[in-house]
Amino acid sequence: MAMAFTSLLLLGFVLGMRHAIDPDHVVAVTAIVSREGSLRRAQWIGALWGIGHSATVFLVCGTIAVFKLAVPPTLVLGLEFCVGLTLIALGVLNLVSVASVKAPRATQPLAVGFVHGLAGSAFVAMLISTSVPSPMMVGWYLLLFGIGTVAGMMLLTSAIAMPAIYFAGRYSDARQHLRVASGVASVAFGLFLAHRTGFTGALLDSASDWISS
Fold first, then answer.
1. pLDDT level of residue 121 (50, 70, 90 thresholds)
2. How far apart are CA 117 and CA 49, in angstroms?
């Protein structure tokens, strides 16, 4: 029993680190970290993003898994659509403030992590509801998943920031180019995600059917 519990916690930590490097997460933190000139600040942004994400996942997934709640597909698509809009907003923010070196406020990565956590909660809840036998173990699993997400995001932001800081020190306009590139990538991926969930994923059709019924 103890071995199974330890293995479950280790799995939660590893999956949390793996979850941190999902494409939409990478695009989001790159757009934020591109405005930083300090490795420590970049790591702090990663930690804040992970804390916001993990807090949402812990509360929402814990509630869904413990009370065996059903998550409507329309809600899942709607949350993914919100992630797409968030990425578009981050990208536009980078593009319209290229001339500024102002660092993002601490609330920005926290809020972005919160939105991403909402979008990912349904999948994580479905995973643990089929593999974790008790509410207590659900809580421990989600806690380790969250710690893994924070650790993974801090490593990711470090990996993004180190070459950016290095080239910014050698080339005066390197950071500006990175901010433009990350802004374009964030807008493009956000449009792709919004289109996939809103049209390919039939979110708007589902919402129309729900309103008319």
1. confident
2. 10
Residue 154 in tokens = 């801090």
Render pLDDT for 128-186 as a digit per residue (tens, 0 to 9): 766 666 778 888 888 898 999 999 999 999 998 888 777 766 776 777 888 888 999 99
Decide if 207 contacts 74 (C-beta within 8 A): yes
Which residues lie below 8 Å from residue 185, measured CB to CB, with a gap of 6+? 27, 30, 31, 91
Residue 7 has a pLDDT of 82
**Cβ(112)–Cβ(52) below 8 Å:** yes
**3-state SS string for 46-68:** HHHHHHHHHHHHHHHHHHHHHCC
pTM of the model: 0.81
To 5 degrees, how large is the angle CA 126–CA 187–CA 151?
A: 50
CA–CA distance, 76 with 55 (Å, rounded to integer) = 18
SS (H, E, C) 129-175: HCCCCCHHHHHHHHHHHHHHHHHHHHHHHHHHHHHHHHHHHHCCCHH
Instruction: Give tens-digit pLDDT for 52-86.
Output: 999 998 888 878 777 777 777 777 788 888 899 99
Given a contact cutoff of 8 angstroms between Cβ atoms, the answer to whether 88 and 186 are in contact is yes
